[in-house]
């Protein structure tokens, strides 16, 4: 036993060291990245070829540079710590950004092995004390090992899903097809996946924020699980194509989402799902159900701005906004056939809603509680009702109430979209006197020939990259301030997130 003690310690250290080296050891057997991605440089002839005949460089598929082989970073690579395979670019990305984590896992394993050796290393000590120490050390080290290893595997699985999603293709105006990975550092992407009727409804809701999506360099890609499988056949106009793209290769999209849901034991059902990618191609949120577009804009799709953190003010009159809204309401795929008279009617409807919005802001900024109270419908905002039920305080529409904004606030860049008979939404960029910008949204219902306000809400929407942490929801009862409840955070608690978020 005296001779075995140092041998056991050496074996423990060797095993832990092997785990530290294992995740990146595959690079030593492959050519350097520069050599793999570029053709070999031409060199001077070698006079004696015999001395070099035994030296050859091969790629993983057995080909050599002379055979035209390429290093495939998307190929699977077995990861020792996770005991499963990931894409090579996933392992490379994770090793580059989490260099200390494999060492922590290896140290935990070393602690387990050392604790198991304690009874042998301390034979002359009280057996009960030694056994308790061994059990405690093994339990603590084992718990840390499992926790760190599980967190590492989950993070790598998330990166693996993001890289796999980057291989999917989207089509711009039915002409140019690009991989999502090619949009990195250029566009943010929100993918909607589900039955056609549900997804078209969510695209219509996104159309309300069309100008805000363009300002955020964001594109929406609808993917249908029925009725053709994907949106590649849906034509879009020039204006709409700035924010709405089509899914190419529908089977690849369907297979990806089915595997993503199946890996978490989820079924899509009739709810559908959405996934959002930031400029780097990393997931900023995902969930089953419908996205809340204003909250996603405020928390993940901030406007690009002018390079100095300021959102440029767009100056336009109501007539121009009504014409743009009429074009948006009649020119999208699936819209009813329209002639000049229909476009004129849509323009008149948009102008009437914008007039109601102007009347609302006139009463709001003037602090006229009576005029504001007369604008509302009888139904309320579900979010306000939930907040009231949970004990939140509502600021009523009364003189001097905090429901009214501070003096000096200006609504700018107002727009509208008539969603259907008696249903419309308006948005505006509110600019408080103290600085900053807010994205405001209003829902309107036509009651007895007049547009009545159903809901009013706003959320910070800043070009300096700041993330909104609160949103204000208002209805006929008043306003309530809510903490951020973006879809991902709600669904995390129910265990239905598609791509987990990690700090």
From TrEMBL:
Signal peptide bounds: 1-18
Keywords annotated in UniProt: Signal
Residue ranges of the TM segments: none
Protein name: DUF4440 domain-containing protein
């Amino acid at each position: 036993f005296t001779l075995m003690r140092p041998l056991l310690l050496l074996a423990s250290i060797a095993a832990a060291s092997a785990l530290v080296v294992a995740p990146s050891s595959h690079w030593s057997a492959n050519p350097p990245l520069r050599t793999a991605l570029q053709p070999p440089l031409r060199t001077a002839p070698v006079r004696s070829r015999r001395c070099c005949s035994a030296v050859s460089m091969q790629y993983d598929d057995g080909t050599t540079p002379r055979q035209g082989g390429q290093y495939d970073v998307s190929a699977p690579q077995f990861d020792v710590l996770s005991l499963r395979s990931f894409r090579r670019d996933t392992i490379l990305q994770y090793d580059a950004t989490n260099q200390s984590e494999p060492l922590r896992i290896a140290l935990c394993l070393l602690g387990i092995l050392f604790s198991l050796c304690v009874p042998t290393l301390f034979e002359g000590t009280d057996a009960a004390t030694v056994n308790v120490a061994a059990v405690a050390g093994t339990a603590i080290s084992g718990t840390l090992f499992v926790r760190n290893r599980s967190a590492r595997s989950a993070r790598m699985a998330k990166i693996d899903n993001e890289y796999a999603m980057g291989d999917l293709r989207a089509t711009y105006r039915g002409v140019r097809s690009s991989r999502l990975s090619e949009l990195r550092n250029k566009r943010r992407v929100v993918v909607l996946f589900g039955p056609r009727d549900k997804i078209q409804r969510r695209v219509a809701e996104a159309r309300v924020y069309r100008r805000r999506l363009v300002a955020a360099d964001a594109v929406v890609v609808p993917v249908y699980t029925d009725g053709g499988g994907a949106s590649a056949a849906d034509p879009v106009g020039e204006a709409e194509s700035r924010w709405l793209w089509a899914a190419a290769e529908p089977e690849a999209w369907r297979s990806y989402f089915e595997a993503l849901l199946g890996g978490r034991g989820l079924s899509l059902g009739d709810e559908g799902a959405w996934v959002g990618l930031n400029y780097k191609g990393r997931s900023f949120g995902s969930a089953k159900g419908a996205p809340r577009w204003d909250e996603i804009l405020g928390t993940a799709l901030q406007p690009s701005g002018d390079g100095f953190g300021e959102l440029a003010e767009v100056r336009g009159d109501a007539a121009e906004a009504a014409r743009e809204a009429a074009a948006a309401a009649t020119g999208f795929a699936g819209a009813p056939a329209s002639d000049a008279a229909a476009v004129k009617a849509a323009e008149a409807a948009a102008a009437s809603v914008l007039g109601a919005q102007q009347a609302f802001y006139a009463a709001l900024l003037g602090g006229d509680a009576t005029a504001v109270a007369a604008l509302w419908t009888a139904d309320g905002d579900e979010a306000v009702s939930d907040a009231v039920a949970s004990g939140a305080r509502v600021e009523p529409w009364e003189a001097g109430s905090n429901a009214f904004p501070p003096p000096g606030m200006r609504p700018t860049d107002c727009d509208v979209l008539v969603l259907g008979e008696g249903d419309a939404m308006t948005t505006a960029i509110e600019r408080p006197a103290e600085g900053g910008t807010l994205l405001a949204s209003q829902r309107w219902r036509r009651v007895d020939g007049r547009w009545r306000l159903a809901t009013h809400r706003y959320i910070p929407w800043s070009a300096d990259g700041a993330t909104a942490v609160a949103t204000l929801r208002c209805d006929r009862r008043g306003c309530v301030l809510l903490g951020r409840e973006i879809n991902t955070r709600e669904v995390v608690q129910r265990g239905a997130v598609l791509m987990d978020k990690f700090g």
